[in-house]
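Our consortium's second objective concerns turning raw sequence data into structural hypotheses that experimental partners can test. To show how far this objective has progressed, the report includes one record in full. It was chosen at random from the queue rather than selected for favorable results. The single chain below, 64 residues long, was entered without modification.
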Amino acid sequence: MNSYAKYKGKSMRPGGGGRFKKMTDQLEREGRTADEAKAIVATAGRKKYGKKRMAEWAKRGRKK
């Protein structure tokens, strides 16, 4: 799978939402609730990319 393939209609590029969705799906399969999975992935994203970039991507995702 190349680095820009789609995951359930979302781009795998940073900010595209594909990697976020893939990780939340994985955590849900492991027994987490949807809200828990999203919280865990958002925390990991903030640690890696910072609060400002994550907020920018979330804003862009809400506009879609």
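The partners drew two points from this record. The chain has three helices and two strands. The radius of gyration is 12 Å. Both points have been shared with the crystallography group to help prioritize constructs.
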